[in-house]
Design brief:
The chain is of the alpha/beta class. The protein has a single domain, classed as Alpha-Beta Barrel (TIM Barrel), CATH 3.20.20.100. It has 12 helices and 12 strands. It has helices at about 30-45, 60-70, 100-115, 135-145, 160-170, 190-195, 235-240, 245-255, 260-270, 285-290, 300-310, 320-325, and strands spanning about 5, 10, 15, 50, 75-80, 85, 95, 120-125, 150-155, 170-180, 200-205, 275. The chain has an 8-stranded parallel β-sheet. A two-stranded antiparallel ribbon has the order 1-2. It has a two-stranded antiparallel ribbon with strand order 6-7. The relative contact order is 0.14.
Length: about 325
């Protein structure tokens, strides 16, 4: 497995986003199936594992911690705080963004317990709580580093301006945001800000939440609780239009001798040695297909044509619905 740098860590060029083993895309796989995926990733040479307190309201951290604890020294373990599940007076657990120092400390300590580890290698602020100055949240997280509970800090879904403000308080090792052929927002300013401060860029949803794999052809089949349902790009009318982009993209992948997913990941890897994609999957065969993308050789013409086929001008629909858009701090087209 090829490697790339994130702060002090040398990690596999493609990491594993663990979210959908417990969260987001309808009914998650069983714990046994999740364990198979995690161990297959480890056996294949994957060393970067990304989870969060939010995913399954702690269930994902428990799964990752239980399965990977015996292999802790072989991996770079990443988690996130500042957004999680909070039980209301009605007994219902709801997602809450909270960047207060006392909450971030509590989040981190809870994550350490669920993960079964003494230290989290890379700890992200999952969302910037705009009611709390970013300097205050990062200051609190820096104290977790000083106490040995965290080794490096990261940010998720933030603008270039916020990256710089946070880095002025404490060095930021990584910024994580959605980035793929069909989501180019980081190219506006965040990628440049990361390179300016020396932070790696970790790309989540690099396969466009399955669109770029070519396997999701009917959004009506999505589970009622699937987080893609309210996303404008996945509305039936918009998705029908977006599907027209796939045949020429699939033809280009065949020409290049790879799968559509490998072409999408190869394009992303080609955007810079500081970019680390973290595709998620619930299937071992898809995991191996994704990891093989690191060894696919794509010429410049194929990379250019892929970018011309699928980009911010050819994709129909916004990335998030209105409410979710308000919760992120990223530049939008």
């Amino acid at each position: 497995m090829q490697t790339r740098k994130i702060g002090p860590f040398e990690v596999s060029a493609i990491g594993l986003g663990c979210m959908n083993l417990s969260h987001a895309y309808g009914v998650p796989p069983s714990a046994e199936e999740g364990e198979r995926v995690l161990l297959a990733a480890l056996d294949a040479g994957e060393t970067l594992f990304d989870t969060a307190a939010l995913y399954g309201f702690g269930a994902n951290e428990q799964l990752v911690g239980r399965v990977l604890k015996p292999h802790r020294q072989r991996i770079t373990l990443c988690s996130k705080g500042g957004m999680g599940g909070v039980k209301g007076d009605d007994g219902v657990v709801r997602r809450v963004i909270d960047g207060r120092p006392e909450t971030l400390r509590s989040n981190c300590e809870d994550s350490l317990r669920r993960l079964g580890t003494d230290v989290i290698d890379l700890y992200y602020l999952h969302r910037w709580d705009k009611k709390v100055p970013i300097e205050e949240s990062i200051g609190a997280m820096s104290r977790l580093v000083e106490e040995g509970k965290v080794r490096a800090l990261g940010l998720s879904e933030v603008s270039a301006a916020t990256v710089r403000r946070a880095h002025a308080v404490y060095p930021i090792a990584a910024v994580q945001t959605e980035y793929s052929l069909w989501t180019r927002n980081p190219e506006i300013a965040v990628l440049a800000a990361c390179r300016e401060i020396g932070a790696a860029f970790v790309a989540f949803s690099p396969l466009a939440r399955a669109f770029l794999t070519g396997v999701l052809t009917d959004v009506s089949s999505l589970d009622a609780k699937d987080i893609r349902r309210p996303m404008p790009r996945f509305s039936p009318e918009n998705y029908t239009l977006n599907l027209k982009l796939l045949p020429p993209f699939e033809a280009l992948a065949r020409e290049a001798g790879c799968t559509p997913a490998q072409l999408a990941l190869g394009w992303l890897l080609d955007q810079g040695p500081d970019i680390v994609p973290i595709p998620g999957t619930t299937r071992v065969d898809h995991l191996r297909e994704n990891l093989a993308a690191a060894d696919v050789k794509l010429d410049a013409a194929v990379i250019a044509r892929a970018g011309e086929l699928i980009n911010q001008s050819t994709v129909i629909g916004n990335r998030y619905a209105a409410q979710a858009t308000q919760e992120v701090d990223t530049e939008e087209f």
